[in-house]
Amino acid sequence: MTALLDGLRIVEVSSFVAAPLGGLTLAQLGAEVVRVDPLGGAADRGRWPLAPSGTSLLWTGLNKGKRSVAVDFRSAGGRAAVARLVAETGIVLTNAVGRRWLSYETLARDRPDLIHLQIEGRPDGSAAVDYTVNAGLGFPLITGPADAARPVNHVLPAWDVACGLYAAVGLLAAERRRARTGEGARIRLPLHDVALATAGNLGLLAEARLGGVRERSGNDLYGGFGRDFALADGGRVMVVALTARHFADLCAATGTAGTVAELERLLGADFGADGDRYRHRESVAALLAPWFAARAEAEVAAAFAGTSVLWSPYRRFADLDQDAEPLLADIDQPGVGRVRAPASPLDAGDRAVVPAPDLGADTDAVLSAAGLDVAALREAGAIA
Predict the structure, then answer these.
(1) Fold topology of 9-200+324-379
(2) Listed residue (169, 165, 188) closest to 177, CA to CA
(3) Which residues have CB under 8 Å from 297's CB, separation 6+?
(4) N or C end of the chain, less CB within 10 A?
(5) CA neighbor of 135 nearest in space, from 95, 202, 195, 206
(6) CB–CB of 34/14 below 8 Å?
(7) Which residues are bridge partners to 120 per DSSP?
(8) Euclidean distance between CA atoms 31 and 64, whole angstroms
């Protein structure tokens, strides 16, 4: 089966998470993504977590299925080689800032229909990373236990992830327009704006503008019923009732339907409504907690089987049964060894897992195909 993005070629000059994830997203759908790094690798080359060999598992994870070219960014020959490659492919994704030779204005001279997507920190061009953007928007002040006195950062770089996916969508949208009109595109994607837009789209900005003050709610589901419960075997489970049906099934499965109905009557509440389930969550949870505390995980699973109840035990990464996940497949990753790694979660019937390349492994092949004199570049020290 032909891959969804077969024939699409992209040059990626990047580091860390957002831009490499954008390139990975496209590579796993069949695009030829050429990641160009400076000699010795970019700043993320040794980013943790590391394999026992010292190879970055972050780098290999985010660069699966790409081709790798390494050139000397400080030399005129190296920069010219990158410009030639960009002119030949016509699409570039980068988060490198302050490099005029990588700017849209410079690269579009040789390719007027160039599609250039630049990931930045802030709209004014100043630097920012996921953790500073997150802090500046207020999320750490509504994360964590209700009695927390300090900000609580999220361990997932959510804005980097969202930014990478926005980048992939933006490039595909620009390429579609170019195919219809012949027009190129200069796209700027500030990380700050990704987080700001998400906060707005989720109603958080409007809530604050209208006078609302979002509280910390620990592990509870804001605006509904969902929380973690302790089990008899020492484990914990997260249980969520998004709808009235979910809540009714939860009460029925735990044998608390009558008691919860009486609580509802006494409070003058309507537990069919999200707001009342949230406002009275402590009282409801107090009725449910003994049922969970008296049971092990297997008993909970049996009780919830065949119901609409949304639940999951808490697991560590090491607890996951990776062999049972069809998204994952064994690969021989250079520098790491035999590991299981994910394909694209978009399943179009042709997904496969391709290892990340060694740094610079495709330098000769890619630059030769672009019409460059590889021997001369090597002699000049412009490539490894």
Answers:
(1) Rossmann fold (3.40.50)
(2) 169
(3) 231, 233, 235, 237, 313
(4) N
(5) 195
(6) no
(7) 190
(8) 12
- 317: DSSP letter: G
Local confidence pLDDT in tens for the 384 residues of the chain = 799 999 999 999 999 999 999 999 999 999 999 999 999 999 999 999 999 999 999 999 999 999 999 999 999 999 999 999 999 999 999 999 999 999 999 999 999 999 999 999 999 999 999 999 999 999 999 999 999 999 999 999 999 999 999 999 999 999 999 999 999 999 999 999 999 999 999 999 999 999 999 999 999 999 999 999 999 999 999 999 999 999 999 999 999 999 999 999 999 999 999 999 999 999 999 999 999 999 999 999 999 999 999 999 999 999 999 999 999 999 999 999 999 999 999 999 888 999 999 999 999 999 999 999 999 999 999 998
Residue with tokens 């707005």: 200
Q: Cα separation of 244 and 303, whole Å?
A: 19
Preceding amide of 49 cis, omega within 30:
yes
Is residue 44 part of the annotated active site? The answer reads no
332 — alpha (psi -120 to 50), left (phi > 0) or beta? beta
Structure tokens at 245: 């049906």
Kindly report the backbone phi and psi dihedral angles of residue 337, in degrees, each rounded to the nearest multiple of 5, phi listed first: 115, -155
H helix intervals, the chain? 18-27, 57-62, 76-89, 104-107, 130-137, 158-181, 191-201, 204-209, 244-253, 257-267, 274-279, 281-293, 297-304, 363-369, 374-379
The amino acid occupying position 186 is R
Tokens of 89: 């492919």
Active-site residue, selected from the candidate residues 72, 130, 160, 274 = 160
